[in-house]
Amino acid sequence: MSSLVAAVRRYPLVTTTVLIGLIGAVLVSFGHTDAVRWLFSGFGLLVAGYETIGMVRRLRHGTLGIDVLAIMAIVATVLVGEYVATLIIVLMLTGGAALEDFAVNRAKRELDALLRRAPQIAHRLVAANGAGPSDDTGAAADTGAAAGAIAIAIAVTGTGSGSGNGNGEVEDVPATEVRPGDLLLVRPAEIVPVDGELVSVSAAFDESSLTGESLPVERENGDAVLSGSINGQAAATIRATATAANSQYQQIIALVEEAAASKAPVVRLADRYAVPFTAVSLSIAALAWLLSGDPARFAEVLVVATPCPLLISAPVAFMGGMSRAARNGIIVKGGGVLEMLSRARTVVFDKTGTLTHGTPTIARVLPEPGFDEDELLALAASAEQYSSHVLAASVIAEARARRLELTGTETANEVPAHGVVARLGSHEVTVGKLSFIREQATDAAAAPLEGGELAIYIAVDGRFAGSIVASDRLRENAPQTLADFRALGLRDTVMLTGDAQPAAEHIAALVGISQVQADCLPAGKVNAVRALARRPVIMVGDGVNDAPVLAVADVGIALGARGATAASESADVVILIDDLTRAARAVAIGQDTIRIALQSIWLGIVMSLGLMLLAAFGFIPATAGALLQEFVDLATILNALRAIGGRRDAAVQARVAARTPAPAGALSC
After folding, report:
1. What is the mean pLDDT of residues 430-445?
2. N or C: lower Cβ tally within 10 Å for the chain?
3. 647-650: long-range contacts (C-beta < 8 A, 24 or more apart)?
4. According to the model, what pLDDT value does residue 155 have?
5. Residue 430 and residue 550: Cα distance in Å, rounded?
6. What is the pLDDT of residue 449?
C-alpha cells in the first residue's frame, strides 16, 4: 500500500489520467457519452497546454523537444472528435516518465547495489586494560603480538558487543569513527568496513563486488584486506589502515555517485534525429490529409508518430551500459564517456604500472669506487623514503630485505619526474635520472643495461656515487590487451614514458605498440596527447604522475586498484581491478551501448514510419493507433535493456578463461 501511495505522489499526472479514464468509463455506463467527450477532450487540452509551456522553455535554451508530435496529436484528435485516442495519447505522454524510471532503475541496478552495500557499522576491539582505539597506525603497531593475540581470541570466540572474555571486549561504532590502527572484528558473512591488514592467521573473503572475481580469495596474516569485501565462514580480525572515507569501497561509492549523477548525452543523441523525424512525421500527416481530404487522417498519422523511442530508449541503454561496466569492475563517469569510448580511434599507454606490473625489483647495485653496495643502497633508500616514484618502494624494500639501517632526513625535496634531494646528516644525497644527477656530477656514467632494464643514479655531496638497476615484469595480459584494442578498431597505439628510449622500445616491441615517445616529463605527455591527430584519444595510466595527461585526453582510463586518488578523480573511467584487459572491455561496452541505443532509436523510428504509412492510407483508426504505439514503445525499451549485457559478459569471461597466459619475463618498468 505504501508503494502505491508513493507512486501516486511521484506521478500525479499519470494518476489523474487513470482517474479521468475511470470516471469516463462510469459515465459511459450511464449513457453520458457527450460528457465523456468533453471530459477527455478538456483534460487532453489542459495537458497539451502544460506540455507546451515546457516545450517553449526548452526552445528558449535552444532545444527542440520532440514531444511536439505528442502535443499536436492531442490537439488533432480533439479537433476530429477521437476523444478516446486523446486520453490514450495523454496516458502515453504522462506515463513515459514512469516507464522510463522503471526501465532505468532496472538498467542501473548494479550501480544501486554498490551503494546499498556500503558498510555502516564496525565492531571495534577494546583491550582489557581500558586503552581506547589508537589514533595512528604506528601506535597500533606498538601493541605488538599481544594485541594481535587478544584480537584473534575475541574473533574466535565471537564475543558480542559489550561482553567481556577476560582479555577484551567488542564495541559497535559507526564505520566513520574507525581510525587507522584500530583492531576490528569482522564476523562471518559481514562486510569489511574499512581498509586494513589481516591480524588473524588466515581468512577467506568474497571480493566480487570489488574485483569481479567470483571465487573466495584466501588472505594470510599481514595481507591487505579491502573494505567492501565479504568475510567468509569464520570470524576474522583486521587492523585498520585507513579511515572509512579514505578506504577503497568509499572511493568506489564516490565514483559511483558521480557516475549516477552525470547526465548521459541522450539529449544530443536524440536531437540528431528529432528534427528529421518531426519533419517527416508532419509531412506524412499533411500529405495524408491533403490527398484524402479527411482531417482525421492527419490526427491518425500523428497518433502513431511517437517520440518515446527517442525520449526513453536511449537513456535506458546508457544506464544499462554504465551498470554493465560497474558489474565488470569499471566505473564510467557518465553516458557521455560511453559515447566517446565508442568513437575512440587512438589509445595511449603509460608504461610503468600500466603495461608492466609497476612493482620493480632491484636487479643489481653498481657502486662507484669509495662506496660499497650496502652503503650506496642505504643512502638511496633513506632519500627515497620521501619520493612518490614507483621505484622508491623497490629501493626501500631491497634495503630492508638486506636489514640495512635507514637514516632520517633533515630536509627532502622531490622534483617531479626527475628525482629527490635529501639532507642525511652532513651529506646531501640526490637520487634520480641520469640527466638530473649530471646537474651536480657531470662525470656520472650511464649504467650498462640489458634489454628492458632501468637504472636510477645517486650522487653524494655532488659526487657521483653509483647506480641501482631495476627490472619490472611485463603484465601477462598486455599483448592480449593491445590485440583487443586493435580488434575494436583502435589501430593507432602510442606509449608515453619518462624512461629511456631503448627500454621503452623494448617494451613496445613486446606488446605490439606502434609509436613510442620516451624521456617524457608530465608536461611533455600532455603536449603529446594534445598533438595526436586521430581523435578521440584514450589515455590509460595507473595514476602515478598520470593525473594531468588523463585529464587532457578525450577519455582518461585509470587503473585505480592502487588507490591513486588524483588519477581516479582526473579520469573519466576508473578500473577497480588491477587488470589491464578491462580497459579494452570498457571500449567494448561503450561500443555495445551506443550500438544498442541507436538500434532502439531506429527500431522505434522504422516501426513508427510503418504505422504512419498505414495510418495515412486509413488502415489504422486513431484509437487503435494509440494502442499500437504503446507496443512500439515497449519493444524499443526491451531492446534498450539489452545494454545490460549479461549474456555478452558471460561469453567474454568464457573466452578469457580459455586463454592460456604467456609466461611473464623480467622486463623494465
Report:
1. 93
2. N
3. 648/592, 649/324, 649/327, 649/328
4. 40
5. 29
6. 82
pLDDT: which is higher, 63 or 492: 492
In this prediction, residue 263 has a pLDDT band, given cuts at 50, 70 and 90, of very low
Q: How many helices (H) and strands (E) does the chain have?
A: 26, 23
Angstrom CA distances, 471 to 154, 387, 418, stand at 43, 18, 19
* The three three-digit cell numbers of residue 55, written as one number: 516545450
Model confidence pLDDT, tens digit, residues 549-563: 888 899 999 886 554
* List of residues 6+ apart from 357 with CB closer than 8 A: 472, 473, 474, 475
Those residues with Cβ within 8 angstroms of residue 226's Cβ, 6 or more apart along the chain or in another chain: 192, 195, 207, 210, 247, 248, 249
Phi, psi of 424 (to 5 degrees): -110, 95
Place of cell 526491451: 638
CA distance linking residue 614 with residue 597, whole number of Å: 26
What's the number of CA atoms in the CB half-sphere (13 Å) around residue 394? 23
Biggest CA-to-CA distance, the chain: 111
Per DSSP, what are the bridge partners of residue 458?
431, 466
Cell (9 digits) for 251: 572511493
| CA 562/CA 540 separation, integer angstroms | 14
The answer to whether residue 592 is catalytic is no
**Annotated active-site residue in 67, 182, 350, 592:** 350
Report CA Rg, the chain: 32
What's the whole-number mean pLDDT along residues 205-232? Answer: 77
Q: Which residue has the higher pLDDT, 472 or 281?
A: 281
Q: Return the residue matching grid coordinates 636510477.
A: 456
pLDDT at residue 661 is higher than 60: no
What kind and span of H or E run contains 330?
strand 330-332
Q: What is the rounded distance in angstroms from the CA atom of residue 18 to the CA atom of residue 43?
A: 12
Q: How many angstroms separate the CA atoms of 468 and 363, rounded?
A: 8
Using DSSP's 3-state secondary structure scheme, residue 430 falls into strand
Confidence of residue 110 (pLDDT cuts 50, 70, 90): low
Q: Is 265 strand, coil or helix?
A: coil
Q: Mention every residue, 6+ apart, whose C-beta is less than 8 A from residue 314.
A: 264, 266, 269, 270, 597, 600, 601, 640
Topology of the domain comprising 330-357+474-589: Rossmann fold (3.40.50)
- For residue 413, list its beta bridge partners: 421
| Least confident piece of the model among 155-169, 317-331, 485-499 | 155-169
**SS3 state of residue 182:** coil
Domains of the chain, residue spans: 12-109+263-318+592-650, 120-243, 330-357+474-589, 361-471
- Report the side by side order of strands in the sheet with 492-496: 330-332, 573-575, 555-559, 537-541, 346-350, 492-496, 515-517
CATH number assigned to the domain with residue range 361-471, chosen from the 4 options 3.40.50.1860, 3.50.7.10, 3.40.1110.10, 2.40.128.50: 3.40.1110.10
Domain 120-243: assigned CATH number = 2.70.150.10
433 close to 459: Cβ distance less than 8 angstroms? no
Average pLDDT in the 79-91 region?
87
CA pair distance 440, 461, nearest whole angstrom:
9
Residues 194 and 242: beta-carbon distance below 8 Å: yes
